[in-house]
Amino acid sequence: MKRVTQSQPPENTDVGLKAWLSRLNGSINGSINSMLFDTHVDSHTELFAISSADQIPAGLDIPLQIEFGIPITDNGIFNLDPDGTITCLVKGYYEFDYVCHLERVQTAQDALLIFWNELNGVSNVASLAVSLDGLIGAAPFTSLFQFDLEVGDEIKIFMVRDGAGFDDGFLTSYTPSLGSVPPVEGAILRVRRWRLRE
After folding, report:
1. Could you tell me which CATH class the domain 45-196 is placed in?
2. Which position has the higher pLDDT, 6 or 95?
């Protein structure tokens, strides 16, 4: 993979960091990867959460907020509520990365699942779609996005069974038959914070 370089460090402000990361982010097709950076910034995982629970939409065109397991209230950087709401406690530039394990049980027409996120109740990035046809029993889904957050900002992640598809598709975990293989979790969330290296 070609290394992305930056000849000058970012301006030593939140705005400068955000602009610099955005330029690099665009230059590597929407994915920030610390291995591609030079020495100007650090990233650190501030929140990691897993849900093994089944998460099943109530029907077509009924949004389901994705939850990420055990609530976290003593993190110091984020609070994670039981319903999956993520509240920022320290302002900064953050990268959100989540992975879902999708399954369907019917073998009829295609199921169309839509995923999106909201900042303070407003969707501000494009939705993503996954189509599960009758021959696909399970599939992974992953999404990565960045936010410049203030204290008190809330992030929520949603999915919906689109009315243009069949009423099927949900999040669930799976235990491999080979005992030494770790389980496939229904939903995994990782949040990284990007900061200028001192």
Report:
1. mainly beta
2. 95
